[in-house]
Design brief:
This protein has 101 residues and is α+β, with helices and mostly antiparallel strands. The protein has 3 helices and 4 strands, in the order E-H-E-E-H-E-H. It is 35% helix and 30% strand. Strand 2 and strand 3 form a beta hairpin.
């Protein structure tokens, strides 16, 4: 299982974490192999932690990016949102939190 982080942003809309989890869970295909999704949101950003069961990291990252893109394209609640990051590395900016800077 791989943990893939994603960050979505918007300038003019907000969504609560429970609704975002519901949207992603509903739009996920069996091929995405999504096992669990954690989300945190604020007025202009959503941070996702997607747990996917794929045979390798590249497949997991590809599936996570595909799922995010599909949600952004198909879910009216996410109109105006964009994907800023999607990958297995630390979400940009999180290193400051981890290092206490």
């Amino acid at each position: 299982m791989y943990l893939i982080n994603s960050r979505l942003s918007t300038e003019d809309r907000s969504i609560n974490a429970a609704d975002l989890r519901r949207l992603f869970t509903n739009i996920a295909d069996p091929d995405d192999r999504l096992e669990h999704l954690y989300a945190e949101t604020d007025s202009h950003e959503a941070r996702l932690a997607l747990f996917l069961c794929h045979p390798d990291l590249a497949a997991a990252e590809s599936a996570a990016a595909g799922l995010c893109k599909r949600a952004l394209e198909r879910c009216p609640e996410l109109r105006g949102w964009s994907m800023e990051y999607c990958g297995a590395g630390v979400v940009p900016g999180a290193e400051k939190i981890l290092l206490g800077v």
